[in-house]
Design a protein that fits this description.
The protein is of the alpha/beta class. The chain has a nine-stranded mixed beta sheet, with helices on both faces. Helix 1 runs antiparallel to helix 2. The chain is globular. The mean pLDDT is 91.
Length: 250
């Protein structure tokens, strides 16, 4: 059974975020998307993240120089590897320290979904350093949980009597069944869907007056991070700094 105190506090945060998003959407301004991110950050994600986890916006990078596209909201831990920060929250984030890459929108549309798919696909070229080594500093093979790409929106341009967000996503992602680009989708008032890889099934949660679609989405995020953190182990920052070794003798 859920704890009523925790659940009530989260529902209050969600309701506040929805109200502020509705008000912000009435203002036609190029900085609206930044405001929507701030609302999601302040009222939805930050209150639930345990100590040591932080949120930023920017690009995911790896030790080989690969970069993702710009990500709205990255959940990361600077205790694993430090980030290159250009402001309080904007920066470049080492892949090994990142757990979620979430696109946050005021309203879904086909173009927004396509853009989120492209950003998620840019994460697939990212490489991860090993986080375990033997006594001679040789890397060990171990499973690393990759960054989880997700999509969150406060509203939808779809009619409530028409197709669902998942049905639209299926039309836009050719890898919908086997290896979808986005593995979690939540739209306020429409539903929450996530991909269960072990049996290649999409799980769905309908909306409720208490916004359980958002409660379940947030719960899924915070429940999956601890195991992902363990899988990263202790990657070595030096691999981001050192030139490749030259074994040739002069």
């Amino acid at each position: 059974m859920p704890n009523d105190l925790f659940r009530g506090r989260v529902i209050n945060h969600i309701q506040t975020a929805v109200r502020e998003s509705t008000n912000a959407s009435k203002v036609e301004h190029p900085l609206l998307q930044g405001r929507i991110r701030e609302i999601a950050l302040g009222h939805l994600f930050r209150p639930l993240l345990p100590f040591g986890l932080e949120i930023g916006t920017g690009k995911v990078i790896d030790h080989g120089g690969n970069q993702s596209r710009e990500i709205d909201l990255i959940i990361y831990s600077s205790s694993i590897l430090p980030s290159l920060m250009y402001s309080e929250r904007e920066g470049m984030f080492p892949a090994e320290s990142c757990f979620y890459a979430i696109e946050v929108k005021s309203r879904t549309s086909a173009s927004e979904i396509r853009d989120a798919i492209a950003k998620a696909n840019s994460l697939r070229r990212i490489q991860y350093l090993p986080g375990a080594y033997d006594s001679e500093s040789r890397p060990k093979n171990h499973r690393i949980t990759p960054i989880i790409p997700a999509f969150f929106a406060f509203d939808s341009d779809l009619l409530k009597t028409g197709k669902s967000e998942l049905e639209r996503y299926q039309e836009l992602d050719p890898n919908f069944r086997n290896k979808p680009s986005l593995v979690a989708i939540c739209v306020v008032g429409r539903g929450y869907w996530y991909y269960r890889a072990r049996d290649k099934t999409w799980m769905s949660y309908p909306p409720t007056p208490d916004h359980d679609e958002v409660v379940n989405f947030l719960s899924g995020v915070i429940n999956t991070i601890p195991d992902a953190m363990v899988s990263r182990g202790h990657p070595r920052l030096g691999n981001y700094l050192m030139l490749p070794r030259n074994n040739k003798m002069e």
